[in-house]
Specification:
Length: 193
């Protein structure tokens, strides 16, 4: 694939929130354990997938999904020999991953770009993928004036996000001057007797 083809057509290419979010705070609030399986959906350049790989260790797995083939190709070149498995896919459609196989699904500054239909399909896929007790973590740009980001009518407050997803929030934390992370649990762990 030529470089010019890689620079064409993807809205967010080259724009990363990596230097704007507090990665350490994100990691501290996710309680990732060795051996877990994490999905970084809309991974872009994979900066958080690399952080997650350090947390899950050699017994875990990090799936780095993005619809942009050029981003995935570059990430594959960078992470050879690690527990990261990058692949081209769309989290608003059924992915190749097995049902009830993921401990954590993470999205950063992706959700505001979904249409209503994509949002519904996203919720279906998240519910299909997460293990009982699994967590969905979403980082979004705060609703309000910021020096960058989507138009105000595309942004969701934490309350609007929970209502839009139809999910129960289990935590909210500021992860940068202009960002928040909200966590959701879709399927509770079954009771132990």
């Amino acid at each position: 694939m030529s470089q010019s083809k890689c620079d064409h057509g993807h809205k967010h290419r080259g724009k990363s929130s990596e230097h704007l979010v507090e990665k350490e705070k994100i990691i501290a609030n996710l309680s990732i354990q060795p051996g877990q399986k994490v999905l970084d959906a809309g991974c872009g350049n994979g900066y958080m997938a690399k952080e997650f790989a350090r947390q899950v260790g050699s017994s875990g797995r990090v799936y780095a999904l993005d619809p942009d083939a050029c981003s995935i190709r570059r990430l594959k070149e960078e992470i050879q020999g690690t527990v990261i498995e990058p692949f081209v896919d769309d989290i608003t459609k059924q992915t190749k991953l097995a049902p009830d196989s993921i401990d954590l699904i993470y999205l950063s500054t992706v959700l505001h770009g979904f249409t209503a239909a994509q949002m519904q399909d996203f919720v279906v896929e998240v519910k299909r993928l997460l293990k009982p007790g699994g967590i969905l973590a979403i980082v979004e740009i705060k609703k309000g004036e910021t020096p960058f980001g989507p138009p105000q009518n595309k942004r969701l407050s934490p309350e609007e996000l929970a209502n839009t997803l139809g999910m129960r929030s289990i935590g909210l934390v500021e992860v940068g001057q202009h960002f928040y992370m909200q966590r959701f649990r879709i399927k509770d762990l079954p009771p132990t007797y």
